[in-house]
Amino acid sequence: MDNGLRLMHVHAHPDDEASKGAASTAKYVEEGVRVKVVTCTGGERGDVLNPTLSVDPQRLADLRREEMARAVEILGVEHAWLGFEDSGFPEGDPPPPLPAGCFAAIDLEEATAPLIEQILEFRPHVVTTYDENGGYPHPDHIRCHEVTMAAVAQAAPLWQVSKVYYHQTFHKQKLLALHEAAVSRGYESPYAQRIDDVLKRPDDGHRVTTRVPCADYFDVRDAALKAHATQIDPSGHWFALPAEVAREVWPTEDFELAVSVLPYEGPEDDLFAGLR
């Protein structure tokens, strides 16, 4: 089924498509929206975060591709790799320089060109990416934001994307609600270790313009996330809060309308508001 609408998600690494907006993706796929995920890097500098796995570092790049293929199948989306090299997350004070030739270090024009091609080929009505802070300050996430915004603007003479949204996956109001729900019900909170930092953050709820109801698809989201076995411990804290509690407390995935050729008419519950 194809209802004529097209949605493109631009992400930095394999697994980002499963941790950000995956339930709404599954909802739109079931509705007949064509969805394409574009992954900028191969994630080859990511750490293995699943303690049950022993991974040969020389195999990590191949494993990330195999995991991505499984997640794509679970979500029912189309997929393209831009083919850039993961920049890694520089740690230290001061942080070390980025690896030569990595996604965040190359010229912006070079990094943008293949995404322009993807936009002109797929002709999405809606594009999602991260905000100017990258969602969190990973250099590839910040570069993903820069590349997406540049590509949408440069493609406009040939294909005008109608709307660009930022994922607002971990805004303060949502994190506090889920944390408090976990604690009050006697579960381990996925956010316990960083709740003090969350409390110190300024309120950012005003950035959320669009809340897409998608609780019925949380199981698809979790399956796609678990497909990235090198990145996710299936018995870890991210799955400590039962799905039924998450559905009750926060049944939406949240976005910020960043660019639109249509007038914004107040809070939305659909990325395609005004386009149907």
Structure, described:
By secondary structure, this protein is an alpha/beta fold. The chain has one domain: Rossmann fold. It contains nine helices and seven strands, in the order βααβαβαβαβααβααβ. Helix 3 (60-75) runs antiparallel to helix 8 (218-227). The mean pLDDT is 94.
Per CATH, the class reads: Alpha Beta
What's the main sheet like? 7 strands, mixed
The amount of helix comes to: 25-40%
Q: What's the total number of strands? A: 7
The helix-and-strand class reads alpha/beta
Question: Helices, strands, pairings?
Answer:
Blueprint (H helix, E strand, L loop, with lengths): L5 E6 L4 H4 L2 H10 L2 E8 L18 H16 L2 E7 L23 H15 L3 E4 L9 H17 L7 E5 L4 H13 L10 H6 L9 E4 L4 H10 L15 H7 L2 E9 L16
Parallel strand pairs: 1-2, 1-4, 2-3, 4-5
Antiparallel strand pairs: 5-7, 6-7
Helix pairs in contact: 3-8, 4-5
